[in-house]
Model the fold of this input.
Amino acid sequence: MADVSIDTLVVHAGEKADPTTGALTPPIHMSAAFELPEFGPQLFDALMMESHQPPYAYTRWGHPTGRVLEEKMAALEGGAAALALASGMAAVSALLFTFLSSGDHVVASEVCYAGSVELFGEYLPRQGVAVSLVDTGDVDAVQAALRPTTRVVYVETPANPILRIADIAALAEIAHAAGALLAVDSTWAGPCLQRPLALGADYVLHSATKYLNGHGDALGGVIVGPAEGIQRIRKEALVHLGGAISPFNAWLIARGLVTLPLRMARHSEGALTVARFLADHPAVTQVTYPGLESHPHHALACRQMSAFGGMLTFQLRHGLGAAITLAEKIRLFTYATSLGHARSLLFYYPTDLYVDAVSYLSDAQKHRIREWMGEGIVRVSVGLESAQDLIADLDQALRARTVKGMVGPAAYAVLKRLQGGSARA
Done:
């Protein structure tokens, strides 16, 4: 199906009528184990997983419902194979623990999903893996960070939560010249808006919980790449680390993918409309969205992405107090940390908790990130509602005043002194 559009692939790839019943919707195979083949090569393949698609033996190793999702994602991303896992973090850790060993070095985005950056900053060093966290929006910084022992360059673009954009093609070139793999977390864009493999990346990852599923009702992760590499990740990390996706979640995500192009077009259109409104609002001091000409990487986003997605951030003129009021007063938006749902979500990230308090970033890095975040940002996931209705909801909430909004900053300062610590994105 390589010669058809993504709009057709989301419907047909990986799906065929059930051979037993003729059902057009793929069934959910809720079985933990499978009858093994008779003694011979197929039994050996099932037990040793020597082929790309061995006979089914045990659901942690692979199952029919997951295979539908994997075949669909491989087609959508233009990869040879895909592996579905239990979550986005299961995908990240499976890839890293397959290709990195003690003594190796990895270069990674200094700003990415909190679970990922904490894995890089805190946990991989415990395993003897050297980590360089850099601004992957700066190709020269990545080049300077490479070492003879670098095995993986890991990039998240657009980056959560600040929406930095990294030049995938340029990073692929320098990673490969250094003998390293380039892995791209493309969760915020998805295959409808950005094709990392076509730009030279070796692997593309997704938290399938987000846009791929699109309905906020299933956890999952996906890795797409070369068949030999994906088989290795399945045989090593999936089997031994155990991040297996359930058949039901795989079915929900595969079902959600059918509407992905329609949803991403709507998310992108709505986000651009909301971003333009916020850019002119008196309560807002800065809006960051790749589709705005004010974005530092707007030209790169125009080259690399077909549209700009449903995520944006903005800074509030009156800081934390205004953010508390916003959370109290929104009606259509929901105050929540996830993204990619049909409903619109927003969440406030205080810079002192999410950047300043972490130990694995240098003062120079914190300063660079603060240039994107100020004292804090509101991260917005624009859903599928009417953009005009969302604008009306934001406008009334931004113009409101509440008691909690007035006293909240002082209370927050007291709590920080009493509790200390950092928060998680």
